[in-house]
Design brief:
CATH superfamily of the largest domain: 2-enoyl-CoA Hydratase, Chain A, domain 1
Number of strands: 11
CATH architecture of the largest domain: Alpha-Beta Complex
Structural class: alpha/beta
Strand content: 15-25%
Number of helices: 12
Order of helices and strands: EEEHEEHHEEHEEHHHEHEHHHH
Shape: globular
CATH class of the largest domain: Alpha Beta
Radius of gyration: 19 Å
CATH topology of the largest domain: 2-enoyl-CoA Hydratase, Chain A, domain 1
Helix content: 40-55%
Oligomer: single chain
Number of domains: 2
Length: 270
């Protein structure tokens, strides 16, 4: 079994561990169903940055502590102290934008392991992931209509990109909770497994990805992200570079050799 390496953070409400090529992120606020506070957002920026910079981390997994929630939204209990004035609201907005940018800069596959409540900011966080695997008992929703809030442009844009405008409007208009089966039907998640098998399935998926050639995985993620942009904004030069980078890599030679020798390749990410 590979050794674990924990990242020291300024808060115990976030946990980050590296193990076997996988970076594990745990939202550790089970008393509030892992609701995200400002301090958790700031710690998450630190974690994502660390995982992006560490070549040994090849895939990242997000999960919630306990069995009640992935993340049940923002920590509303701090709103009266942290979002009461325009100045505080602006500070909160800047922290959220910095977190969005940290997710955007992560070039490694990101998996959301979802159980229990995945609501509001929790759903927004899950939608940052490239793959979303859900337990059968999970619930999803955007309760902004019950809180008097309007979600920001980038958060709603991601919802629309994934489930389409009609499904996004229904979710926002009704503020109701969706079952895992409904979430699968509209494309919000891509896989449902029994609650008891969730961690095993996600570990299996993450391990499979971690064993593949890092440049191939990174190149595929970045290429697909470019395809999702408006045509005028696509960086075709980047896409061409990713192809050439992989073709010239040691890993490409190792992959060819391993295939001919009928053995598992040992990729190094270069």
């Amino acid at each position: 079994m590979s050794a674990q390496e924990a990242i020291v953070l300024s808060t115990d409400r976030m946990i980050a561990v590296k193990e076997g090529g996988i970076g594990w992120i745990t939202f550790n606020n089970p008393a509030r169903r892992n609701a995200i506070s400002i301090e958790m957002r700031l710690a998450l920026i630190e974690i994502l940055t660390e995982f992006q910079q560490d070549a040994a981390v090849r895939v990242v997994v997000m999960k919630g502590a306990g069995d009640k929630a992935f993340v049940a939204g923002s920590d509303i209990s701090e709103f009266k102290d942290r979002r009461a004035t325009p100045e505080q609201a602006e500070e909160y907005r800047r922290a959220s934008e910095s977190l969005d940018w940290a997710f955007e800069k992560l070039e490694k596959p990101l998996i959301a392991m979802i159980q229990g409540a995945c609501l509001g900011a929790g759903l927004g966080t899950a939608l940052k992931a490239d793959l979303r695997v859900s337990a059968a008992d999970a619930q999803f929703g955007i309760p902004a209509g019950r809180l008097g809030l309007v979600y920001n442009y980038h958060s709603l844009k991601r919802v629309v990109e994934i489930i389409g405008p009609a499904n996004a409007m229904e979710m926002i208009f009704t503020a109701r909770r969706y079952s895992a089966n409904e979430a699968l039907r509209i494309g919000l998640i891509h896989e449902i497994v029994p609650h008891s098998n969730l961690e095993m399935r996600v570990h299996e998926l993450a391990t499979t990805i971690a064993r593949n050639a890092p440049l191939s995985v990174r190149g595929g993620k970045l290429m697909i992200k470019e395809m999702m942009k408006d045509p005028a904004e696509r960086n075709i030069e980047l896409c061409d570079f990713l192809v050439k980078e992989a073709f010239a890599s040691e890993d490409y030679r190792e992959g060819r050799t391993a295939f001919m020798e009928k053995r598992e390749p040992q990729f190094k990410g270069r």
